[in-house]
Amino acid sequence: MSEWTAEERRLVEWLADMDEDDALALAKRMLLEDRVDPLHVLGLCRAAMDIVGKRFEEGEYFLPELVLAGEMLENVGAIAKPLIKQGGNEAAKLGRVLIGTVHGDLHDIGKNIVTFMLDINGFEVKDIGVDVPVQTFIDEIKAYRPDVVGLSGFLTLAFDSMKETISAFDAAGLRKGFKIMIGGGQIDETVRAYTGADAFGVNAVEAVSLCRGWMGVAA
Questions:
Q1: So what's the pLDDT on residue 102?
Q2: What's this model's pTM, rounded to 2 decimal places?
């Protein structure tokens, strides 16, 4: 945070504090008038969402705050995305990614950021939502034939759901057809090993790097 300008710090603080009107007005000005790199603005949004997530974990924020944070992110993204495409950063589709939040978990902020970042980095992404049953994942994999499956979960109980879901992929004979990444909340190497996923990412940038690596695309 120390390398940010006062204006950048203000945007992160307003987003994290749910100061919707001021935050969106500032983001709009930075993107449309000041011509700040839209990927940088989205990075500031991600930093704000990390703060929101911590406050939720600590019981300071609840579901309504998570929903509002997601809406603010979508509004900023709606302005930023066309600017990224104008800048020529959109490439031919590099691969297909199927992503969803596992059953028992309703969080989608992190998943939405990952979906957005994969999309603008040239991936075809199908987001199947939150609280997704194991069978729905299996049905969608058979229909969509993804190169990568992303399992999201914010709550610790999601780790068991991830393990169950991945085990079901093995049982259905689907596992060899794609890579599996997990993310959200307190996920680390121990959780990755427990669930049986191929890799984990602590943020959207890492998720993009994983997918690019699996598709054989240089970073």
A1: 96
A2: 0.69
